[in-house]
Design a protein that fits this description.
The chain has twelve helices and five strands. The chain is of the alpha+beta class and 271 residues long. The chain has two domains: 194 residues, no CATH class; 33 residues, no CATH class.
């Protein structure tokens, strides 16, 4: 399998991935969508549907004050792309946050490494190592009694680890499970043909969720309303950004206290 990263660089990335898997206590666990929670520990994250052909996301290391020491890095992920691609993008961005501290824009062809910078290839390899641990992958191959890798079995493994098809194909090549000839054949499959194979083998297609989540905006807005710092109307406005309504969170508009009428006051005074 051809790889523009040299052996020293690959070994360094493998060590980085093992280190972080241990730090996150995920050495014996398939990460999958847990990556979003892990990313949230190290960055302020916004999920927004930018469009299927738009960049997968971007990272701004310095935050809004141009000083990385003051705030967490800022990451935006495109929720218009399939969830497995969002998972890969999140792991890719973690590499930049942990090891490079450089701003990053993820192109829509992120998985195509032709003409990509070395730093992007390193981040891609780290994401693959972090999301698809070699030992876990081999365990799953044995568990499911996969003797010969086919498009069907590769798609099943990709779904299990919640990573794109191409990522799983490359990972299988990286750990020496498939030969270069088969690797190139599997990589030659177009996105359309992969989707057709998923339908043929009844493997769920990873759809985009189109979610709009602004870090902990919802939590902060509700807390501010409950503390009396903002009005119900302001709460409605803030929640609308995340396509939510107060009633979705079990919050009802408080009835304003009305002063008694003159007649009611007279009756109270007579009593």
């Amino acid at each position: 399998m051809t790889n523009d990263l040299n052996e020293l660089e690959v070994n360094e990335i493998k060590n980085h991935a093992k280190e972080k898997l241990g730090l996150c206590r995920k050495g014996n666990d398939i990460i999958g969508t847990q990556i979003f929670s892990i990313l949230g520990l190290y960055a302020r994250v916004i999920y927004y549907p930018l469009g299927k052909n738009a960049p997968w996301g971007f990272t701004r290391i310095s935050g809004s004050r141009n000083d990385a020491s003051l705030e967490k890095p800022f990451v935006a992920l495109n929720s218009s792309i399939p969830v497995d691609c969002q998972v890969f993008a999140a792991a890719h961005e973690l590499y930049h946050i942990w090891y490079e501290q450089n701003p990053d824009m993820l192109p829509s062809d992120l998985l195509n490494e032709h003409d990509k910078k070395t730093s992007e290839k390193k981040a891609n390899r780290f994401a693959a190592e972090f999301l698809v641990d070699e030992l876990l992958l081999k365990q799953e191959i044995e568990l499911y009694k996969i003797k010969k890798l086919t498009i069907k079995s590769i798609l099943q493994l990709a779904e299990l680890f919640t990573v794109p098809y191409r990522t799983m194909v490359k990972r299988l090549g990286e750990i020496g499970v498939i030969e270069d000839t088969d690797l190139n054949r599997f990589l030659a499959e177009s996105e359309d043909s992969v989707e057709k194979y998923k339908k043929r083998y009844s493997i769920p297609s990873q759809k985009s969720d189109g979610r709009i989540i602004m870090d902990n905006l919802v939590e902060l807005a509700v807390a501010a309303y409950e503390a009396g710092y903002i009005t119900y109307e302001k709460l409605e406005y803030l929640l609308r950004i995340s396509t939510l309504k107060p009633e979705d969170l079990g919050i009802e508009k408080k009835t304003a206290c009305e002063f008694p009428s003159d007649d009611e006051l007279d009756r109270i005074m007579e009593e």
